[in-house]
């Protein structure tokens, strides 16, 4: 599953995407991830894996991953084919979620396409293009579906859903906003591949002062609520991604940040895609596996697994499912773990361990 990065020109998309690709996982460790030039496959941070790898003396750690796709720039009029309009819309259709980068930094040397820095207007411009594209799709589909409903080849709810969606979009809201705020049900519209039903996340590319200014951040949060906003300084993240782990931690600490913006982005992105992990550990590797939220292990999101690999991408021989309590104990009391460890072999632990467990 992928997250498409969109945003107006000169907001820092490429800078952020470059930082993501510098930060990306080694292809050799992830044989079933296709790493293409416009895709950044980044690790989902998980301290529990580090602890598990210490406990089991694992040879390697395999984090879950989040795929970000760099989507060519959007400009006003994209829905009518302006700029790279059509290509842009086709790329968005393929993404499972949309990450909009919004410019919050001020720099007179970097022009803003609209001549002023206004996060609210930027969000509006992108939303408007996606809304217009969806309205076109609905308008095109309506006569066909009306015929099908008359001929009893489609359920009447489909037509009702088209009209309700049209009304929401004409009111200037995305369908995702309506899903979030009013539990608008889009199930009858699935075949139309609408763009504004996709989950959104927002990255505000800001400078130091804004990062430290909760009031300013709250103003920006209010623009996208209830969707979570991420604040980062793309230039800084790009520099951070070039350092080794130790140096990066020092640099982060010096700025008073606990987590890098890219780590936050990976976490929120993973959550937005509706995914969770479960963990396995042994001497060979400590690993986070991706499953849809609410699913039991081991089930990966089918759409992201090439058919030929579906069976083989599961852990082959894990022996027992251990309880959350045992995992907690293992993590809390490393000295007591050796006896337990001796009774387990290679794929020794598997637990459906949702993100709720953090300590
Ligand atoms: P894109 O068109 O959205 O891909 O934007 P780019 O990533 O190419 O950035 C446009 C310009 O803004 C470049 O000159 C970047 O160096 C600069 N830039 C990007 N992020 C920041 C930032 O956080 N602060 C400042 N001051 N400049 C930035």
Automatic annotation (TrEMBL):
Q: Name one GO molecular function term.
A: ATP hydrolysis activity
Transmembrane residue ranges: none
* Pfam families referenced in this protein's UniProt entry, alphabetically: MMR_HSR1 (PF01926)
| Gene3D superfamilies per the UniProt record, alphabetical | 3.10.20.30, P-loop containing nucleotide triphosphate hydrolases (3.40.50.300), TGS-like domain (1.10.150.300)
- Annotated OBG-type G domain ranges read 1-252
Q: Which GO terms describe its cellular component?
A: cytoplasm
Residue segments, region Disordered: 289-321
InterPro entries per UniProt: ATPase_YchF/OLA1, Beta-grasp_dom_sf, G_OBG, GTP-bd, P-loop_NTPase, TGS-like_dom_sf, YchF_N
Q: Which keywords accompany this UniProt record?
A: ATP-binding, Magnesium, Nucleotide-binding
NCBIfam families per the record?
A: redox-regulated ATPase YchF
Question: What protein is this chain from?
Answer: OBG-type G domain-containing protein
Organism of derivation: Brevibacterium siliguriense
């Amino acid at each position: 599953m992928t997250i498409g990065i969109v945003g107006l020109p000169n907001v820092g998309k490429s800078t952020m995407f470059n930082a993501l690709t510098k930060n990306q996982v080694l292809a050799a460790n992830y044989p079933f991830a296709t790493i293409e030039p416009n895709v950044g496959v980044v690790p989902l941070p998980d301290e529990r894996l580090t602890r598990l790898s210490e406990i089991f003396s694992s040879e390697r750690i395999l984090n879950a991953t989040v795929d970000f796709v760099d989507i060519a720039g959007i400009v006003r009029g994209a829905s009518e084919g302006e700029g790279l309009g059509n290509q842009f819309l086709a790329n968005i259709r393929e993404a499972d979620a949309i990450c909009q980068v919004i410019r919050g930094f001020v720099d007179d040397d970097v022009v803003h396409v609209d001549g002023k820095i206004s996060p609210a207007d930027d969000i509006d411009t992108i939303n408007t293009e996606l809304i217009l594209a969806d309205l076109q799709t609905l308008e095109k589909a309506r006569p066909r579906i009306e015929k099908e409903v008359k001929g009893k080849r489609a359920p009447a709810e489909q037509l009702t859903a088209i009209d309700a969606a049209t009304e929401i979009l004409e009111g200037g809201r995305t369908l995702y906003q309506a899903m979030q705020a009013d539990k608008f049900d889009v199930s009858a519209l699935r075949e139309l591949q609408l763009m504004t039903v996709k989950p959104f996340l927002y990255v505000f590319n800001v400078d130091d002062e804004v990062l430290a200014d909760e009031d300013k951040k709250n103003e920006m949060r209010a623009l996208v609520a209830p969707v979570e906003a991420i604040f980062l300084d793309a230039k800084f993240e790009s520099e951070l991604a070039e350092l080794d782990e130790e140096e990066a931690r020092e640099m982060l600490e010096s700025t008073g940040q606990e987590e890098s913006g890219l780590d936050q982005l990976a976490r929120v992105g993973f959550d937005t895609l509706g995914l969770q992990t479960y963990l396995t550990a042994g001497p060979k590797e400590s690993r986070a596996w991706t499953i849809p939220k609410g699913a039991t292990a081991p089930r990966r999101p089918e759409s992201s697994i090439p058919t030929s690999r579906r069976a083989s991408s599961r852990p082959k021989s894990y022996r027992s499912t251990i309880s959350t309590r045992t995992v907690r104990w293992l993590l809390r009391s490393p000295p007591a773990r050796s006896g337990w460890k001796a009774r387990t072999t290679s794929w020794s632990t598997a637990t459906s361990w949702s993100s709720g467990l953090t300590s």
